[in-house]
Design a protein that fits this description.
This protein is α+β, with helices and mostly antiparallel strands and about 500 residues long. Among the domains are: about 5-185, no CATH class; about 350-420, no CATH class. It is about 45% helix and about 15% strand. It has helices at about 15-20, 40-45, 50-55, 55-65, 130-145, 185-195, 200-210, 220-245, 295-315, 315-345, 355-375, 380-390, 395-400, 405-415, 420-430, 435-445, 450-460, and strands at about 25, 35-40, 75, 80-85, 85-90, 95-105, 110-115, 130, 155-165, 170-180, 245, 270. The protein starts with 13 loop residues before the first helix and ends in a 30-residue tail after the last helix.
Length: about 500
C-alpha cells in the first residue's frame, strides 16, 4: 500500500451493524494542526497497515478520524457501569469513537478505536478531548504490558491535534489510536440488560461468543459457557497483574473487558516498594482499587455481569441463579491457582502435583517470600530479579534488600535447597518496567515537546526481560525526593 490505506485494508462496521442500539454514529473533531508524536510501526505491520502511509498527512488524519477509510463507520459506544461501586445507567464513549474493525495479518478481527477525538452525545460535562500526557501514558504502559505478555489493548499511535486543551492549565491536545480484540465490556451487558430488551441482550452475547469464545456456541448452554469463559479470562488476567505488581487504578465495570484484555490505562502504576495497600489514583480515597483488592473487585464485577446475563442462562430467573453462582464460584480457585503457579515460576520452582510434598514446600516458600516483602519497603521488581542472581550463587543483592536478615537466610536456605531454575526466573521476572518516576519524567518532557525520554523508556520496556548495558537507570527505584506517587484522571 503506497498511496492509500484503503487499497489493501477495508474497515468493517460489524459492531455498529449488529448492535445498532449500542452505537451512535458520530464524527471526530477536526484537528487544526495534526502532528504524529509516537507511532507503533511493528503493530501497523501486524494490522496489515502500511506504516509509510500512516506517516503521510492523509494517514495521520486517519489516525485522528478526520479521514475515513473505506468501510469505516465511526460510532460512540453506549454502555453502563458501576463506578467506585455506584451504578450509572448511561456512560458510553464520551470522548472516543470506534472507527470500525479490520482483519489483521493473522486473520484476527481487531477494533480500531480513537480516544480523545472530541465530544460525543455521551460526553456529559466533558470536553471530549485528551491531552498529550495521559495519551502517552496509555501508549507507554499498554505496550509495556504487551511486552510482559499480559493481555491488553494495544497502542498504534498518539497524534497531537495542535489544539490547546484546558485542564488545570492549558495543555497540548492529542488523540490515541487504540487497538483491541473488541471493546465489549461488562458495562455493555449492563446497559443492554437495563433496556429490558432481551433480544438485544441475546444479540450482544452472540456477538461476544462469535468474537471471543466461539467454542461456547457448541455448549449445552452457550450463554453460561460465555460467562464461564469471561470468568476464566479475568481470573488469569488479574493474576498476571498481581504477579508483576501492576495496579490498574480504576476497575469500574465499564473498564472490564469481555475478552480478558486490560483496558483504559488512566491512574495506573507499577508498584515500586511492595505494598498490598498501594493506591495511585487521586480519586480512590477509600482504596477500593488498591493492589491487594484487585482480585476481590474483579469477582465483584463478574457478579454484576452474571446479574446482567441471568435472563440468558434460564428464562426462569430463579433457576438461572444457581448455575450463575456456581460459575462465579470458580473465579477464586482459578485466580488462586494462576497466581500460585505464577509465584512458583517467579521463584524458579518446578510444578508439582497438588498435595504432594513438593507442592507443600513450594506453598511454604511462596508464603515466606510474601512475608519478607511485607516486612519492609522492598522494591518488588528488583527483588525478584535479584533472586535470579541468588539462584546462581550471588545472594548478596537480594539479601541486602530486606530488613530481617535472619528470616531471609532461613527462607533462602529452604529455597536454594530446591535448586531453583535461574533462567526460568529471568524469563518471567522483568528487569525493566515503566518506573513511575521515569514515566513522569518522560511525560513532562513530551508535554514540552521533547520525546527523547519517552522513546528511551519505550526501548527499555519493550524488551523487559533482556538486561542491556547502558540502561541501568531504568532498573532503579525512585529517588528519595520523588515522594508519594499519585496519578490523575486525564479528563
Amino acid at each position: 500500500m503506497t498511496a492509500s490505506a484503503e487499497s489493501t485494508v477495508t474497515f468493517d462496521g460489524r459492531f455498529a451493524r449488529e448492535l445498532a442500539e449500542l452505537a451512535v454514529p458520530w464524527q471526530a473533531e477536526e484537528a487544526p494542526d495534526p502532528q504524529l508524536l509516537v507511532f507503533n510501526e511493528a503493530l501497523a505491520h501486524e494490522l496489515g497497515l502500511d506504516p509509510d502511509y500512516l506517516r503521510m498527512p492523509e494517514g495521520v488524519r486517519l489516525l485522528l478520524g478526520n479521514h475515513l477509510p473505506e468501510g469505516a463507520t465511526p460510532v460512540a459506544q453506549a454502555y453502563a457501569g458501576h463506578q467506585f461501586g455506584g451504578y450509572s445507567p448511561l456512560l458510553g464513549d464520551g470522548r472516543a469513537l470506534l472507527l470500525g474493525e479490520i482483519v489483521d495479518a493473522n486473520g484476527r478481527l481487531r477494533d480500531i478505536h480513537l480516544k480523545g477525538s472530541g465530544r460525543t452525545p455521551f460526553a456529559r460535562a466533558g470536553d471530549g478531548r485528551a491531552v498529550v500526557g495521559p495519551m502517552l501514558r496509555e501508549y507507554l504502559v499498554s505496550e509495556a504490558m504487551h511486552a510482559l505478555g499480559i493481555p491488553t489493548t494495544r497502542s498504534l499511535a498518539v497524534v497531537g491535534t495542535g489544539r490547546q486543551v484546558r485542564r488545570d492549565d492549558m495543555l497540548p491536545g492529542a488523540v490515541l489510536a487504540r487497538v483491541a480484540s473488541s471493546h465489549l465490556r461488562v458495562g455493555s451487558f449492563q446497559y443492554a440488560r437495563a433496556t429490558d430488551n432481551i433480544e438485544l441482550l441475546r444479540r450482544l452475547a452472540d456477538h461476544a461468543i462469535a468474537r471471543h469464545y466461539p467454542a461456547a456456541a457448541e455448549a449445552e448452554n452457550p450463554y453460561l459457557a460465555l460467562f464461564k469463559g469471561v470468568v476464566s479470562a479475568q481470573a488469569s488476567l488479574v493474576a498476571q497483574w498481581m504477579l508483576v505488581g501492576f495496579v490498574h487504578g480504576v476497575m469500574n465495570t465499564d473498564n472490564m473487558t469481555i475478552s480478558g484484555e486490560t483496558i483504559d490505562y488512566g491512574p495506573c502504576a507499577f508498584m515500586d516498594a511492595f505494598n498490598p495497600a498501594a493506591v495511585y489514583s487521586s480519586i480512590d480515597v477509600g482504596g477500593r482499587y488498591a493492589y491487594a483488592n484487585q482480585p476481590v473487585v474483579a469477582e465483584w464485577n463478574l457478579a454484576r455481569l452474571a446479574e446482567a446475563m441471568l435472563p440468558l442462562f434460564n428464562e426462569d430467573q430463579e433457576q438461572a441463579v444457581a448455575p450463575a453462582v456456581e460459575a462465579l464460584g470458580e473465579f477464586r480457585k482459578q485466580y488462586s491457582d494462576a497466581w500460585f503457579s505464577g509465584m512458583k515460576t517467579k521463584l524458579g520452582l518446578p510444578e508439582a502435583p497438588a498435595g504432594s510434598p513438593g507442592d507443600a514446600a513450594a506453598s511454604e516458600l511462596v508464603d515466606g517470600v510474601v512475608a519478607l516483602l511485607k516486612d519492609g519497603p522492598v522494591d518488588y521488581t528488583q527483588f525478584f530479579r535479584n533472586l535470579g542472581q541468588a539462584a546462581r550463587g550471588n545472594v548478596r543483592p537480594a539479601r541486602g534488600m530486606v530488613l530481617d536478615l535472619a528470616a531471609f537466610d532461613a527462607w533462602a536456605g529452604q529455597w536454594l535447597a530446591l535448586d531453583p531454575d535461574a533462567d526460568l526466573m529471568d524469563s518471567v521476572n522483568p528487569v525493566y518496567i515503566p518506573r513511575n518516576h521515569l514515566v513522569e519524567e518522560a511525560l513532562a518532557a513530551a508535554t514540552e515537546g521533547d520525546l527523547d525520554p519517552l522513546h528511551r523508556l519505550l526501548q527499555a520496556v519493550n524488551a523487559p526481560y533482556d538486561e542491556r548495558p547502558g540502561l541501568e537507570r531504568y532498573t532503579e527505584g525512585p529517588p528519595e525526593d520523588f515522594g508519594t506517587y499519585m496519578t490523575f484522571c486525564g479528563t
